[in-house]
């Protein structure tokens, strides 16, 4: 009995050591969901947190314009160049392919010459506002991994809002406001992403960075800066992704901030290039966008490393016995424990949190009934219980790529052993250090325990 008690103490000291250990500077790619490993019990699966690769998400979206008839060319129209009101020979005709500017041209291949772009009707109804909503829908939760970049072929709008939805377009919240004059347009103090701190990262700001300069030759892009926001946790060149992943793991608000199902660009006021609108020549004012970049990945709750586009619909290819478009449920017959999102920690492989069909230590269940000889007194059974769940606790993670099994036993990678896969020496032939003998003995009991229950 004494060695069981010793195990309790040993495990406690082990947990302290690992809690103080720093994560390696390298970080995981999370591109593998499982691999086969050899353990003392033979071949077994080692499960890891995994996610699909980040990719160009504009290939999978549906675009909707509001009002629907806002695209130029029906009826045909000529418009002038903004920088030169005397150049009014640009034609838009929806029925002629070379002169049409449908919304799809915002998502086609860039690098064509001349550039292809979507264009709105001109501001013929001035002073009635010229407002357009461009809504991008994925019908799937996706996680943004890079800046959203809009490239304008007209002057950049004097007022616009980027909005997001996380519930398939039912509700919308702003991501960022853009204006030549934030106070005047939105009664907001102008700010830039550089003003944000870790504490204010989720603040919604109005920026004047992307509205000035109406001339073609000037910068034509409007950004929503994802990477600068990541950098608040991961450092300037995102060298410390471990820190970011740690934050994403523990802060749901932060994770949700970068997660969307839809985006909406609300164009509120076109570039005028001056304080006065030239009412005699309203063909100068319109919106034209040649490109929208959205980089991201399907949100699969760290339970899938691929996402397929099938019958016009994105869906995660769920592993770990999970299911649903986002792998957000356990498969039928795999409710051995409650579903949970995978974890990025510990770096680099994370924790898979698989769904399994072995009802074991259920959080809602009372203490398991221990074989009588193992229960000398109640306090003792409590301490045994807590150490049996050796890898259930965030501080007590399996080391060296081992994965937690049934909340209470680590499946070690080849070459590692010990309760937390921390012991290298046993495999290299030398005898275990004296201090770890009780640990090994206890591990055997834990395994035995597993079969008893
Ligand atoms: C654009 O969408 C917003 C909601 O996000 C709505 O209030 C507004 O009326 C829409 N504008 C147009 C022109 O459809
Ligand atoms: C678009 O349609 C609405 C009615 O649905 C109409 O009032 C408006 O004039 C049309 N706009 C253009 C530019 O054709
Ligand atoms: C969105 O996806 C669901 C399935 O997840 C499907 O039933 C629905 O028809 C889709 N909606 C659209 C507009 O494609
Ligand atoms: C715009 O102004 C130019 C130069 O003043 C003129 O040639 C052109 O016809 C005007 N366009 C319209 C639609 O009034
Ligand atoms: C489901 O889990 C069981 C064991 O927990 C495993 O043998 C099986 O391969 C898993 N299925 C999938 C599709 O991952």
> Proportion of β residues?
15-25%
User: Average pLDDT across residues?
Assistant: 78
Q: State the separation between the terminal residues, measured CA to CA.
A: 20 Å
Secondary-structure arrangement, i.e. CATH architecture of the largest domain: Sandwich
Which consecutive residue ranges, at least 5 long each, have pLDDT under 50? 1-26, 360-389, 424-453
CATH superfamily of the largest domain: Galactose-binding domain-like
Question: What oligomeric assembly is this protein in?
Answer: single chain
Q: Helical content, roughly? A: 10-25%
The count of DSSP E runs of length 2 or more, i.e. the number of strands, is: 22
Ligand inventory reads: 2-acetamido-2-deoxy-beta-D-glucopyranose
Q: What is the class of the largest domain in the CATH system?
A: Mainly Beta
Compute the CA-based radius of gyration.
29 Å
Structural class: alpha+beta
Shape: elongated
What is the compact description of this entry?
The chain folds into 2 domains: 2-50 and 335-452, no CATH class; 55-298, Galactose-binding domain-like (Jelly Rolls, Sandwich), CATH 2.60.120. 17% of the residues lie in helices and 23% in strands. It has helices spanning 2-20, 182-186, 226-234, 241-250, 252-257, 378-388, 437-452, and strands at 34-39, 42-47, 55-56, 62-66, 77-79, 90-92, 118-119, 132-144, 148-152, 159-165, 173-179, 206-207, 221-224, 259-269, 288-293, 295-298, 307-310, 313-316, 322-323, 329-330, 403-405, 409-411.
